[in-house]
Design a protein that fits this description.
Layout: H1 14-46, H2 54-69, H3 75-98, H4 107-123, H5 126-131, H6 143-158, H7 162-185, E1 189-191, E2 197-198, E3 205-206, H8 208-225, H9 232-257, H10 264-282
Antiparallel strand pairs: 1-2, 1-3
Helix pairs in contact: 1-3, 1-6, 2-3, 3-6, 4-7, 4-8, 6-7, 6-10, 7-8, 7-9, 7-10, 8-9, 9-10
Length: about 280
């Protein structure tokens, strides 16, 4: 279905939502491009060879092509995904060589796990979600959605804040999985702020099944991203931070999003930022 013909039932005005998403895409897109280019330019300035970046470049391109081929994202969104993957891959190379934390080389595995979990959750019960008007568009996610969900993780990775990176990835996985599973399985949804019953898919509404699935998804991402037992306390802090981000997302949905002040992209962006900051402080 053409984007212009899609039903719009959100509290925020469509023009405001689109303006916010465009602004987020341009600002974060610029920061991601600069973050992706910083290591190559630094290497050139220091007279270092660029061949170590070949593997991250090839892997990121392959990952973006796969995402596009599976129609999990639009071509523009896949391009943004390439940038994010490349930043994580470059950061992984730096962490592997210089970080005292051996777990920090697993960011790419966490990103792949996030893709698998969210892709499967989106496909799960798709017919039922489509019948209820709750399904994601078949053309895949938009570039602004990718930036909103994964941009913070990439920026924290580029800054060397690994715990914040994994917390942001875990929160993004938890948010998508909880929403998709909750809508597919059904069950009573309740507004986080008042606990009154609301229709499935309502901003700020949560279900027990969806919440448990989201918390489990966050646990999977943290386990893959921080597998070393020596850093178990950090892993627990990161998981708790991602859980806090998940509920913060619902809180924003039940308040400012329901009032039409901000759209879903800004809610997701703010929630991943919240999780990343909390993880960085706690760890």
């Amino acid at each position: 279905m053409d984007h212009e013909l899609e039903r719009w039932d959100k509290a925020i005005l469509k023009t405001r939502d689109q303006a916010q998403s465009r602004a987020l895409l341009w600002v974060m897109g610029t920061l991601l491009v600069l973050s992706a280019l910083a290591p190559p330019f630094a290497a050139l300035k220091l007279g270092l060879p660029l061949w170590p970046l070949a593997t991250p470049l090839i892997f990121s391109a392959g990952f973006a092509l796969l995402v596009s081929a599976l129609r999990a994202a639009t071509p523009a969104a896949a391009t943004v995904g390439f940038l994010i993957c490349f930043i994580l891959a470059q950061s992984g190379e730096v962490w592997t060589r210089f970080s005292i934390d051996p777990a920090s080389r697993h960011a790419l595995l966490a990103l792949i796990a996030l893709f698998v979990l969210t892709f499967a959750a989106t496909k799960f019960g798709r017919r039922r979600k489509e019948a209820r008007g709750l399904s994601e568009a078949r053309r895949g996610r938009q570039a602004s959605q990718i930036v909103a969900n994964l941009g913070i993780a990439a920026l924290f990775a580029a800054a060397g804040r690994y715990n914040g990176c994994i917390a942001a990835l875990a929160e993004a996985a938890a948010d998508t999985v909880s929403s998709e599973i909750g809508q597919a399985i059904g069950g009573e949804a309740r507004l986080l702020t008042t606990l009154r019953s609301v229709p499935a898919g309502t901003d700020g509404g949560i279900t027990a099944t969806g919440t448990l699935a989201g918390l489990a998804a966050a646990g999977v991402i943290v386990t893959i991203g921080m597998p070393n037992h020596a850093f178990r306390s950090n892993a627990i802090a990161v998981w708790l931070s991602s859980c806090a981000g998940l509920f913060f997302d619902s809180l924003l949905g039940a308040t400012v999003e329901r009032r039409g002040w901000i759209g879903n992209d800004l809610v997701n962006f703010t929630s991943t930022l919240f999780a990343a900051v909390v993880a960085t402080v706690l760890s």
